[in-house]
Amino acid sequence: MTIVFERPVTAADVPQTHALVIGVGRYPHLNGGDGERALTTMGLNQLSSPPVSARRFSEYLQTGFSNMECPLGSVELLISESGVNGSGIEPATFSNMEKACDRWYERCDGNEMSIGIFYFCGHGLRVPDTILLAEDFGQHKRRYWENAVNLTATHHNLAEMKAKTQLFIIDACRERPANAFEQLQGTMGRPLIHGSRVRFRERDARILYGAAAGKQASGQQHSVSYFTTALIDCMRRLGASQRTHKYGWVVDTNSLGKSLQLYIARLNQTGILDTELTCALGGESNFESALNWISDQDAAVMSTIACMPEDAMKWAELHFDNGNGHVEHRGPSPDHWLTELQAGVHYQLRAEIQSESPYAGARSEIKKYIHPPHADCRLEVD
Amino acid sequence: MGDLLVKLPEIFREARFRLPARILEISSERGKKTTALLSGESAQRVTGLKGQLLVQVTLPSGRTVSATTDLMTGPEDRTFVMPLSAEDVFGFPALKRSPVQPNVSWNFLDSKNLFRFAADNSPQSDAAKTSDAKQMLQRMEKLMEVNSPPFRLWRSKRFTDWTVIGNVTGKRVPLGSELVTTLRLDRFREPRFLEVPFDDRNFYVAIPPHHATIVLLRMAATDEGAPSLTVEMRFADSNASSLLHYLQHGDFESARILGEDLADSAEALLRGKRRDPTAAVIAAYYLLRAGDLSRLHDWTANLDNWFPKLPDGAVIHAWHLLKTADADYQQIANRLLVALDRGVPVFTEGLRRLMDGLVIVSQEFEEREDLQNAIQLCRAYLLRATSFGDTTTFIATHPQLSLQFANSEGIQREEPQFSIFDPEEDAETVIATWCPPQSIESYRSLLKLRNFDLLSTAAGGFDFEFDSPGGLPATYIDGSEPLELGSPTLKVADGTDLLIRELTTGKATDKTVPVRFDATTGSLMIDPEGFTDSEWRVFELFSAGFESYRKTTPDQRTIIALCKAAVPLSIERDPAAGIVSGHLLQAWRAAVRSGSGWAPPARWWFLGNLFSRLEMILETEVRPLLKRLPGADVHLRDLDSLVGKRINPGKQAIWDQFVSRTPTEGEE
Question: Looking at this predicted complex, what is its ipTM?
Answer without folding.
Answer: 0.92
